[in-house]
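User: Here's a chain of 270 residues. Predict its fold as tokens.
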Amino acid sequence: MAQKSRIDWIRENEEKLISRKYHKEIDRSYTDTFYDARELQAVHGTYQYEMTMLDYIRNGKTEELKKFLLEYARNEHFNEGTVADDALRQAKNIFIALVAMIGKQAAIPGGMPIEEAYYLIDTYTQQCESCLNIEDIYILQYNMVIDFSERVQRYKYPDELSFLIRSCMNYITFHLNEPIEAADVIKYSGMSHSYLCEQFKKQTGYSIKEFINHSKIDEAKSLLAHSSRSIPEIAAYLCFSSQPYFHNVFKKLSGYTPAQYRKLCEKGHG
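Assistant: Prediction complete.
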């Protein structure tokens, strides 16, 4: 028998949810823990560190973030609190809380498309769960923080961009694996053809079609560098009308053929 979804269970067990069955237990546990922490003067001390880190990520300041993480690790000591009964589970729980916080409170407000941020959270969470020792989690955590910052940096739009143009750019980014055209973006915006085209060009420096092509090529670069998908597969995934057309657009915008770019990435130069 198939397991019920969370939504189905909630619908069928509303009374259990509103009964607050665990409320007194949580209150008792929290009170005891907080009492002991005061007695031992065991403060978390992570709040300011977290806020500063989130600010760097939100603004895509990757180089400053790297310096901050290393400097803080050398000079500061703080208590992360107890969130599990064993050290490995403790490290995993802290990682999972951190990646969710970074994705929702820094990356998305910083301009990273919502769905992309959520899928990256899911990916890192699954990778963390597969780690077999704490050192691997620490390494994954550092790389996760930098990865989010670098992605925000790529998506960082000028502050003067209007909400309309930001919304259209995010719409394009989320539909790169579809045969999206300028007409689709105009329809999504609800604006007239002339108005949106004029504003898009004025605010971004690109026509809508140019921005679509640049975005598709940026995605192609990522797939060439980080996936094993073949060049024809990538061309098809990004809905180029033919592989030769993909080849020509890629070379025009990057200066390399897709095959040349993949080789550069394999050598660590991409």
